[in-house]
Amino acid sequence: MDDILVVGAGPAGLLAAWSARQRGATVRLVAVGIGATHVAPGWIRVWNGHVPGTSEVPGTSLERWIADHPAHPYALAGLDALHGGIAAFKEVCGQAGLNYVGDPAAGSNFRLPTALGAVQHAALAPESFVAGDLRQPGDMLIAGPAGWRDFYPRLCAENLSRQGYPAQGVTFDLPEMGALSRFDATPVGLARLFDRPEVRERVAARLKPRLDGAARVGLPAVIGYASGAEAWCDLQERLGVPVFEIPTLPPSVPGIRVFDAFKQALRRAGVNILLDMTATRGIVEDGRLTGVVIPTVSRAAVYRADKVILATGGLYGGGIASDHHGQMREVVLDLPVQAPGGLGDWFADQLISEQGHPVHYAGVRANHQLQPVDEAGNVLLENVRVAGRLLAGYNPVVEGSAEGVLLATAYCAAQCISYTCRGDRVTSRQGDKETSRQVDK
């Protein structure tokens, strides 16, 4: 039996598994498949300072937000967990040569361009993104492979220019792109092309004469797959100006880099990762979850653990299911879901609403230990912790808090059921209770 079973392989599940393992626990991670990393842009959003329905502007403190919203996941996990989660994330990525920069504690966000030329706030970003910070002066050259349908440089540049960020869009020929796919090249396929020095040399040779005074060059986020940092540095050196990556359509190469970094770190740490494992129900005895049932071809397998972290995602991620009546349920343990009453209550009258859509606040209620609770606050399963998008009470679209909540609650969940190695014993702390047991060496 494992000390901790983590269900879910999105950012929250990956960080929770790694953080729990760092505290000495034996950890197993099971998941249906990869999580949101492969569709995420790659940057880390913590909070954009926007308070819907008020005149407040970006810059309002996160501490004030937490005080005014005691049921928000940031309030449940605490700011220390947010900073701890960010530090853990940066450590894992840094071990893989994937350096994230930024200082969330300073309350300042990068302003980074999207593929459509919109602007997103990010508290942390990969090093290869930050030259695109739109607070910096200077014209930009936005470039991409000719004929690639996932990125249109001129569209991106024109929309940026309309907002007061001077940019020019150009394309360049990339003959190898035609051999990548019968229909259309994928971001991963292009990234592997940029791993090749001769491709980068030819791209730089075609772009350098077209700089025309541009202070920096933006390219789709496909600058290298196996050697992203090396490819990015090499391309900058060849062009003689800073280069920045811009997220494209999924699959996200920056997100895949993050997933690979965590997968390598977890395997080095001895965490058993099992994908293609669909947990269908739990085994509950005396208010504790003692095992999770996963059907296989021949029989149902039961994975047992002393404690469980549930990080299966929200309504869009598969952790919550809904029916045509608008009823929602949590799919593994059948935990009650805090949700709008029916389909008619899910959405605001306008598609683009400042307040956000009520359905985005749906999730499982939890206490400050991140244990699942009912509407009255009663703990439902004392050895279970809920992390990530499965939690109720926040809207990442409106708040710009998506990755921040995932990291904070994952770190907090691992802390709340942490294990610490002391010689030949492992000590487990849960709230104010501490237990100790012998371990095999």
The count of strands amounts to 20
Largest sheet: 7 strands, mixed
Radius of gyration: 23 Å
Amount of helix: 25-40%
The number of domains: 2
The CATH superfamily of the largest domain bears the name: FAD/NAD(P)-binding domain
Give the end-to-end Cα distance, rounded to a whole number of Å: 16 Å
Shape assignment: globular
Q: Helical element count? A: 12
Strand content: 15-25%
User: What's the architecture of the largest domain in CATH terms?
Assistant: 3-Layer(bba) Sandwich
Per the CATH scheme, the topology name of the largest domain is FAD/NAD(P)-binding domain
The CATH class of the largest domain is identified as Alpha Beta
Question: What do the pLDDT scores average to?
Answer: 89
Unreliably modeled segments: 53-59, 420-441
Structural class: alpha/beta
List the helices and strands and how they pair.
Layout: E1 2-7, H1 11-22, E2 27-30, H2 62-68, H3 73-77, H4 79-95, E3 100-101, E4 110-113, E5 119-122, E6 125-126, E7 140-145, H5 153-162, E8 167-172, H6 187-194, H7 197-207, E9 216-220, H8 228-239, E10 243-246, H9 253-269, E11 272-274, E12 281-285, E13 288-295, E14 300-310, E15 320-322, E16 328-330, H10 343-346, E17 384-386, H11 396-399, H12 402-416, E18 419-422, E19 425-430, E20 433-438
Parallel strand pairs: 1-2, 1-14, 2-11, 7-8, 7-9, 9-10, 14-17
Antiparallel strand pairs: 3-6, 4-5, 12-13, 13-14, 15-16, 18-19, 19-20
